[in-house]
Amino acid sequence: MAKKTKTELATKSTATPASNRTIYVDPRIAVGMFFTLTGTILSAFGLSTRARTDVYVKSLGLDANLWWGLALLVFGIVMLAFGRRGQARMEKG
Amino acid sequence: MPVLASADWLILLIYSFFALSAGLSLAPTIDGSRDYLEAGRKLPGWLCGLALTGASMGSLEVLGMGAAGAKYGLASMSLFALGSIPAMLFAALVLVPVFYGAASAAGAQVRSIPEYLGLRFDQKTRALTAGLFTAMALFTAGISLYAMARVVVALHVFDSVANGLNLPPTVTLLLAMALPLLLVLAYVLLGGLAAAMYNQLLQFCALVAGLLPVVLLGLKRTGGWSGLKASLPAGFLHSWSRVSTGAAGGHPMSIGAVWMVLGIGIVMGGGLWCTDFRLLQMVMAAKNASAARRAPLLAAALRVFVPLLLILPGLFALSLPTPRTTIVIHNENGAIYHEITVVPAAVEAGQGLVPAKTDAAGNPVKGADGQVVLDYAMAMPNVLLAFLPSGLLGLGLAALLACLMSGVAASLTASNTVFACDIYQAFLKKDASDKQILKAARWAAVGGTVLAFAAGCAALRVSDLFETVVLVFALVNAPLFATLLLGVFSKRITGHGAFAGLLAGAAAALVHHGTALPLGEQRGIHGGWIAVLHHPASDMALGVGTAAFAFVVSLVVTAGVSVCTKARPESELAGLVQSPDPAKAAWWKQPEALAGAIIFLAAIAVNLIVR
What we know:
The complex is a heterodimer.
Chain A: E1 10-11, E2 21-22, H1 27-48, H2 64-92
Antiparallel strand pairs in A: 1-2
Chain B: H1 6-26, H2 33-38, H3 45-55, H4 59-72, H5 75-101, H6 113-120, H7 123-154, H8 159-164, H9 169-221, H10 224-230, H11 241-245, H12 257-273, H13 277-284, H14 289-303, H15 306-319, E1 326-332, E2 335-341, H16 345-348, H17 379-387, H18 392-428, H19 434-459, H20 465-489, H21 495-515, H22 539-564, H23 591-609
Antiparallel strand pairs in B: 1-2
Helix pairs in contact in B: 1-9, 1-18, 3-9, 3-13, 3-14, 4-5, 4-15, 5-12, 5-14, 5-23, 6-7, 7-9, 7-18, 7-19, 7-20, 7-21, 9-10, 9-15, 9-18, 9-19, 12-20, 12-22, 13-18, 14-23, 15-17, 17-18, 18-19, 20-21, 20-22, 21-22
């Protein structure tokens, strides 16, 4: 699932020839992937337990898993989009 | 008893996997010691700011804020704001440019605070600070490790696993300490400071994602703000009015207003945000000077709101009814059922969801005044259990675990940097190659892990963890802040002065702590172990007083000894002392100053609204 964090190389010239390759990993990608995954799991879990009132007594009868899962999913996708844009920009130079 | 559902476990495992994957994906970027120790100095300002926020919310802070909410009410919100925002703005505007820009005569940029002190003062000051800092960082890491592991075990969430494997309770506790620690060590060894900072970003997001639903559900359950107000003892929602009177009994915290501003605002805040390398390392990793200045500004802006997330759950803990052992008898088709809910004595003796502390036999502990001693650290975790349905509970627990890991990671990376730069390269092997420094830093991380674990095990025998940490802070950070402050602003301060000031400050902290005892406390870690000369109002007041006394003594001794010794020539101090740069606009005309002013006003506004 997380294989995509393995990033491509971005070349960037620096003073010393020994370290003339700079690898950039945009931190937002990992955050985006984590929340996309968590959001999906939470909303799926929320959907499957929707009918069970005993699970949601704590959250006042609200299917908190479903709604918060969807919110996290949206957040994750937005972060992923920003992260990929940032990554592409760094790789271009 | 709460048992984790498979969805909870899945989310916890996914979080751990992502924590490790940050290390794996960054491992190829580590080419030399600077990549490992200061993330190559190429990170954007926003990441440094968020990592700074994440690192400043380790397990002690998160449990402590929930505890403070339950113990002192919303007043703690103002105290956290007072104890951080002015100091962060001061750091961003004045100190960070000096630290970030400092470089040796050969042009090598400074990697750590002790290294800066070595350049500004002399090698003995560097060695003293490096030694004290490493010890303090690892000790605190061990305590925070234990504090969180104890909570995790007390929540019984892992009981099914522990029972399944037939583990005795002590082994479960040790495992709860060892597993997160090993995970942290793995990603720190792989990716160094950068991996720690990427994880702090993830932790910060997870913390918000895990606690925001608690706050929303809590407000709904207690009937909104007014409902919360009605369900709490009077005075708990007044953030300023009661504290500032300072009269004994006026407010649960009872510290005089002047002391509060001086002690918490300047000494505690400054000691943490302006000198503590566990936090400043995040700023030193920024890609340029302006990114470095933006990082504390961003962290300060977040600091205006984030404490609400952590303090409100503490308030909810008090506003809910205390669980009681109940017997419900009901009749179904002629058969009579007795439904008995058994609640442990310690929970029943507590207040709201805050249980009482227990002794070895599991009985509630009573203080000297006959009142039950409450275990406030459990406030936040109990609220998580009370409000989050399984599924979200996994995310909430992942957030707590994340706080533990990122706090410990900050201690590990900071102490391995200080060891590699200021002990290994400075004293043990002066001509060390870059590869050797990198190796030393990695071994220091391994050694630091072992020491932190040992400190955590030692903490098993100590019952008052928070007081211990505050005392160590007063011993190390408060005097260091005084000497740094003088050293950054005045060229006249000398190495002998700084060295004497640091030692005198630490000694003063010990003396103050040894001669004061809060009312109703036992002599020992609560103070008074030399002789009881005066009685501060509370443990909090004692901690603040000790730090403030150490700060003032260190200030006076540093200045006094410096005047009597010979100052270094001004040419040697270029770039190490704060001096107005004629090419740049005066500092108050720069955009950062404006941003700082806005944050400061916003902080005041929020604290006025939330009253």
